[in-house]
Amino acid sequence: MYVDSHCHLDRLDLAPYGNRFDNFMDETRRAGVARMLCVSINLPDYPAMRQLVDAYPDISISVGVHPNEKGGPEASEAELAEFAGDPRVIAVGETGLDYHYHAAGSSEWQRERFRAHIRAARAVGKPLIIHTREARSDTLRILKEENAAEIGGVMHCFTENWETARQALDLGFHISFSGIVTFRNAELLREVARKVPEDRYLIETDSPYLAPIPHRGKPNYPAYVRHVAECLADVRRIPEPRIAEQSARNFLALFKVE
Question: Which CATH code fits 2-255?
Answer without folding.
Answer: 3.20.20.140
